[in-house]
Design brief:
The chain is an all-alpha fold and 235 residues long. Helix content is 83%, strand content 0%. The chain has 12 helices and no strands. The chain is flat, with a radius of gyration of 20 Å. 29% of the residues are buried.
Length: 235
């Protein structure tokens, strides 16, 4: 008991150091981008914004379909989230990204379970990810799903297919995915949208600092779950 009490201040100090480092990195990246004129180039993407807006409701649909297809074909989702923030604005871009990411993950899940189960099994049966997720879910249930959604140990899009091979309910999978993807979707879309909106440097730095702190706090959730449930993700 004494050792836990003695180590508590050190853990808190370590967490604070991580936040400071994260904020510093964000600030350095932004100042570098601003110095080399990259923020001005980002504003050129407003032409794409105008094109999407000219399509009206069809523009939203096109973005959603492309994002969903990206998830199904296991393409990185991060660029699409940034594009959403730039094109549709910080708030609406975050909403569209979250909805599209959730639908894409659920479609991939359904494909693995009902459409191409044998093909997916053959593709991933020898993967260490498959055994780890399969065993982890059997032992810990939804807690393991939450953990793997928040910790980037397993490729995110691969998870969508592997979880389709587990007994988890599709609605539970979709709901957990929606909740755990929300912080990243909104924060990344928000930052992209704010840069293009031409906010003052001081305002951006404050907003980025807050975003960094939120992401760090979210990263503590899986650590708490893993400790409480005694789950080990990394071998």
């Amino acid at each position: 008991m004494t050792e836990k009490t003695d180590n508590a201040p050190e853990k808190k100090k370590g967490g604070l150091v991580k936040i400071i480092i994260l904020v510093a990195v964000i600030a350095i990246v932004f100042f570098a981008a601003n110095h080399f004129g990259l923020t001005e180039r980002i504003q050129d993407i407003q032409a794409m914004q105008a094109w999407f807006q000219s399509l009206g409701l069809v523009g939203y649909l096109v973005f959603l379909v492309v994002y969903v297809l990206a998830a199904v074909f296991m393409l990185p989702a991060f660029p699409f989230t940034l594009i959403a923030g730039v094109t549709f604005g910080s708030v609406l871009g975050g909403i569209l990204s979250l909805v599209a990411a959730t639908v894409g993950a659920t479609v991939a899940f359904i494909v693995a379970r009902y459409v191409a189960r044998d093909m997916i099994v053959n593709k991933f049966k020898d993967s260490p990810f498959f055994k780890k997720i399969d065993d982890g879910f059997k032992e810990n249930g939804v807690s393991f799903l939450i953990l793997t959604r928040l910790v980037p140990v397993f490729p995110y899009n691969v998870q969508n297919y592997i979880y389709g091979l587990t007994p988890i309910n599709v609605m539970v999978f979709a709901g957990v995915s929606f909740i755990t993807m929300a912080p990243g979707a909104f924060i990344y879309a928000f930052m992209a949208g704010q840069i293009v909106a031409g906010q003052p440097i001081t305002t951006l730095l404050i907003q980025f600092a807050i975003a960094g702190a939120i992401l760090f706090l979210v990263s503590l959730i899986p650590k708490y779950i893993a400790k409480k449930k005694g789950i080990k993700i990394k071998d």
